[in-house]
Amino acid sequence: MSATTTRVLPVDDDAIVEASRLILEGEPVAVPTETVYGLAADATNAEAVARIYAAKGRPGFNPLIVHVPDLAAAERLGAFNETARALAERHWPGPLTLVVPKASPVLPSIVTAGLDSVAIRVPVHPAMQALLRATNRPLAAPSANASGTISPTRAEHVLKSMDGRIPLVLDAGPAGIGLESTIVAATGEELRLLRPGPIDLGLPMTASATIEAPGMLARHYAPSKPLRLDATDARGGEFLIGFGPVEGDATLSSAGNLIEAAARLFDLLHQADASNAAAIAVAPIPTEGLGLAIRDRLRRAAHKEN
User: Fold this and answer.
1) 269-305: b or e for each residue (b if 16 or more CB lie within 10 Å)?
2) Domains of the chain
């Protein structure tokens, strides 16, 4: 592993300098983004990217998202058709990841899991933007947690599974959005939705036999306890996460606000998983707009392996 002790530093200029130093030395660093906390490493350094996979216990067939500061930097790594460029110009910086044909040899195949496409995003968060500009490198950055477990929206969530595995966590408080980015493939004539997220483009989910982007595994985002969906009340021993009229031990949003629910989803799953309850139940979430992204995460979190 990369580290025996994981430091946590509040985000300031000195912390960005230290994080940049570690990244340029080939180490992964946990960084806040507007979606969830990411585990960032130099995307041009195969050994650094391998340390991400090792720290997370991530399967090698699962590609990573590459973060860059702007569209110009993105176009040095991928081939953008007119549709992809229009989406980027409209939604970047922001929680949209575009999968486009790979167009540069600078990215080692470990980043793309050997695929001929690359997933790229331009983040909003000032800490991630500062780190991108300080390192002058594209940064591969999946969520900063053990593979398949609940995504981290706070520094303490990162430490839950990454303490001792990485050298540094930059702490900027809770993530604002709380759900991972929308992922859209623009590798052919038609756009394909690979993962629903905060940006709703009105596209249907695409069934794919190939793992083209993060978040496509059947079981993902999972707590250690059994998870039951669409619950209107708690059964014996369950921690009930409410929504709207369904009250529980905690609520995603008593007002039924999907933006509030998205921001609180992983936080409350962490809380429920750490409780004395034997199992977790979640109230029904609407099947529209941001609700589709929330339900996608919950469905994968509740999936039972054969």
Assistant:
1) bbebbeeebebbbbbebeeeebbbbbbbbbebbbeee
2) 7-195 (3.90.870.10), 227-302 (no CATH)
